[in-house]
Specification:
Helix content is 24%, strand content 30%. It contains five helices and twelve strands. The chain has one domain: tt1808, chain A (Alpha-Beta Complex). It has 179 residues and is of the alpha+beta class.
């Protein structure tokens, strides 16, 4: 163990719950909540959530929930907050403790490295089937699909088909988020 790691304070979920400003907790290290979210970020987030919900309805997929920022408790020392998610089933706790089917992160200057790095790895390890990384400023979206335990970048298409389970396929109109 490196010297700095030895003396870096580590926190747990129960300690984190008592903090006034709760960002994320990654391997016991608090990550401050991003305060500089711009209007393009918020608009893309709202439009994506709307498109995902509409696609679920059109596909008549039952038993799925579309949500936005929730505490995703991966371990007692790692709690992430995905921007948008779709889960199969109900969330019966105040946090998510099982893998979502889809997680989307809208990157900003302050979160891009974390979204493309450590969160990518955590979501992949947890078995999140689809991980969307969106840059609202550049109007770019990466769709990563879990194939044999590893994410593979899929070609971006407005009519990309998400296979949520054996009986549910949905096709959100992804280009609508840029309007």
């Amino acid at each position: 163990m490196r010297r700095a790691e030895k003396y870096t304070p580590r926190y747990t979920y129960s300690e984190w719950l008592h903090w006034e400003e709760r960002g994320e907790l990654i391997e016991g290290i608090p990550i401050e909540k991003s305060k500089r979210i711009g209007p393009k970020h918020e608009k893309a987030k709202a439009k994506l959530k709307e498109e995902l919900a509409l696609a679920l309805t059109k596909a008549m997929c039952k038993g799925f929930t579309v949500g936005d920022p929730i505490d995703y408790k991966i371990t007692n020392e790692t709690i992430l907050k995905p921007d948008i998610f779709i889960v199969a089933g109900k969330i019966n706790k105040s946090y998510l403790d099982f893998p979502a089917v889809i997680i989307a992160e809208i990157v900003s200057k302050s979160t891009e490295e974390r979204d493309r790095g450590i969160k990518y790895r955590f979501y992949e390890q947890q078995g999140v089937k689809y991980y969307l990384i969106i840059d609202a400023m550049k109007k770019v979206m990466g769709i990563y699909e879990l194939v044999e335990g590893k994410y593979q970048l899929q070609p971006y298409q407005n009519d990309f088909q998400f296979q949520l389970n054996e009986s549910c396929k949905m096709v959100p109109e992804l280009d609508n988020i840029w309007e």
